[in-house]
C-alpha cells in the first residue's frame, strides 16, 4: 500500500492549482433572502476527484473547476504577489467582540451586511448582546477570513473540515489550514479560511481580491 500524502495545494507558475492528499472538493453557493441578502451557505454537490487533481485559475477552462490546459493556449500569466500575515494587514474595527478587517483579501461575499445593518454598526453597538451575536454570525460566514473577531483576547474561528469549496461564480474557498505553497516556493500563512482566485484577474494572486464581481465572472 502506498504511503498517504498530506493534504496540500501548490500554485504552479502561470498554471493551475495542484491539489494533493485527497482533499474533498465541494460546490457551494450562498442562500439569499427575498432582498438578495446572503444568509447562509448551501453545499450543492461533492465532486469526484482523485488523490491529486488540478484546478483552473486562469478563469477560462471549459471544464471548470478543473484545469483543461487552456492557460497554456491563451498565454495566461500570473504575478503571484500575495504575502505577509493577517495580523500585519488587518485594521481594528473594535467593538465588544474586537472585530478586525483585512480589505486586501475581501471577496465581497456580502455576509457582512444587510439592508438595515452591517458588521461595523453591530460591532459599535457595545453592551448589546443581540448585536454581538449578529456580528459574530456574519463574521463566521465570511469565506476569506477578511473579517475576524476575538473573545477574551483569543481569536475565535468556526470549526471547519479540511476541504476546498468551489463558490458559484466566485473563488475557491479553502478551509482548515490546508497548506498552500505559492509559485515562488513561499508557503502562505496558514489560516482556517482562505480564498484563492479562479477568475484570473485578481491583483493579489493567488488570493482572491473580489475582482470576479466587477468582471462578471461565471463558471457555468
The number of helices is 5
Using only C-alpha atoms, the radius of gyration works out to 18 Å
Q: What is the general shape?
A: globular
Residues in helices, as a percent range: 10-25%
The spatial strand order of the largest sheet comes to 4-3-10-11-13
The run of helices and strands is EEEEEHHEEHHEEEEEEH
**Separation, N- and C-terminal Cα atoms:** 38 Å
Give the percentage of residues in beta strands: 25-35%
Number of domains: 2
Secondary-structure class: alpha+beta
Describe the protein:
The radius of gyration is 18 Å and the shape is globular. The protein has 220 residues and is an alpha+beta fold. The longest helix has 12 residues, at 129-140. The chain has helices spanning 70-74, 86-89, 119-124, 129-140, 211-215, and strands at 8-11, 17-20, 25-32, 38-47, 52-55, 91-94, 99-101, 147-151, 154-156, 163-167, 172-175, 180-181, 193-196. Helices cover 15% and strands 27% of the residues. It has a five-stranded mixed beta sheet with strand order 4-3-10-11-13, with no helix packed on it. Strand 10 (163-167) and strand 11 (172-175) form a beta hairpin.
Write the layout of secondary structure elements.
Layout: E1 8-11, E2 17-20, E3 25-32, E4 38-47, E5 52-55, H1 70-74, H2 86-89, E6 91-94, E7 99-101, H3 119-124, H4 129-140, E8 147-151, E9 154-156, E10 163-167, E11 172-175, E12 180-181, E13 193-196, H5 211-215
